[in-house]
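Tip: read the tokens left to right.
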């Protein structure tokens, strides 16, 4: 039995609805988004980036984007994991600390430099570190960078992940996961807005 389409589920799209018909016109995009979700969150082999870590990063990233069915889904996914109560509490606290407006960052010297904007440089609170562990501390700090200050990302940031025990393969998968979540939040928000307009 195949899993229901995650974007349809989060956007509240019913089979046969107008939005279902719209999504059906972009069938390949719909299928690829579902395949991306399955490969990132239901992989045959999670490798060194555990399912618990994936759920924690997802809850944090989607929580930073604000209250939404997507954020609720990933928080619930994390909460359903065995022994995750302390982790959920720490993630909730870090979302509250890390929420800001953005995007921030600096461009190389040139015409775009006029758009440079200073903003929050997020670091995990000391009180959360024991619940999170070194790998997730580094992951949350890097995820926040990717969400709010992507143009500031540098090789030193990758080194911080590696120092916390992330392999090159793990970092690639982690980066794909954060990018997918940002896409998923935007597409679900857009589809729910369309549904409200057409209601």
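Filled-in amino acids:
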């Amino acid at each position: 039995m195949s899993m229901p389409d995650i974007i349809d589920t989060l956007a509240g799209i019913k089979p046969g609805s107008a939005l279902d018909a719209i999504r059906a016109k972009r069938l390949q995009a719909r299928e690829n988004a579902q395949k991306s979700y399955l490969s990132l969150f239901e992989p045959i082999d999670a490798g060194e980036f555990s399912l618990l870590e994936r759920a924690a990063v997802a809850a944090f990233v989607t929580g930073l984007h604000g209250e939404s069915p997507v954020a609720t889904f990933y928080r619930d996914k994390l909460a359903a994991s065995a022994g995750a109560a302390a982790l959920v509490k720490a993630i909730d606290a870090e979302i509250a600390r890390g929420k800001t407006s953005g995007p921030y960052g600096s461009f190389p010297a040139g015409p775009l430099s006029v758009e440079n904007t200073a903003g929050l440089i997020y670091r995990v609170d000391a009180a959360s570190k024991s619940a999170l562990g070194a790998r997730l501390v580094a992951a949350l700090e890097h995820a926040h960078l990717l969400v709010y200050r992507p143009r500031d990302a540098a090789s030193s940031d990758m080194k911080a992940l590696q120092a916390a025990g992330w392999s090159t393969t793990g970092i690639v998968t982690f980066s794909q996961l954060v990018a997918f979540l940002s896409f998923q939040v935007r597409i679900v928000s857009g589809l729910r807005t369309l549904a409200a307009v057409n209601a």
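The longest helix spans residues 168-198. The chain has a mean pLDDT of 89.
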